[in-house]
Design a protein that fits this description.
The radius of gyration is 13 Å and the shape is globular. By secondary structure, it is α+β, with helices and mostly antiparallel strands. It has a single domain, classed as DNA polymerase, domain 1 (Orthogonal Bundle), CATH 1.10.150. The longest helix has 15 residues. The protein has 5 helices and 3 strands.
Length: 104
């Protein structure tokens, strides 16, 4: 199994579609979220943040959308000058089973 390192800005406005899905996979695993349809979040970070709260919540199951939305808000407001990274296997990237670290 080859290890890969994934780097991304914590500022979700700068995320690509791939980075949005990496965050989503991580959040699903980290918060034990169920029944999330990943294709509903195949957007750039900038587009994701343009959604109203109601539009965002319609893309996820009840309560799950609230968790995702709040986490996204925290990232947007509190970590604009940090970098997030993880060291993991390629399989871990696909499943969201990654350990994340923050650097300022």
């Amino acid at each position: 199994m080859n290890d890969v390192v994934v780097w991304m800005r914590v500022d979700p406005r700068m995320w690509t579609k791939t980075q949005v899905l990496l965050w989503l996979n991580w959040a699903i695993h980290e918060f034990s979220l169920e029944n999330v349809v990943r294709s509903q979040f195949c957007l750039s970070g900038a587009r994701l943040l343009q959604l109203s709260r109601d539009e965002f919540l319609r893309r996820a199951p009840p309560f799950v959308g609230d968790i995702l939305y709040e986490h996204l808000e925290i990232l947007q407001k509190g970590a604009l000058n940090m970098t997030i990274g993880c060291s993991c296997s390629a399989a871990d990237v696909d499943t969201g089973r990654m350990t994340w670290c923050l650097w300022s």
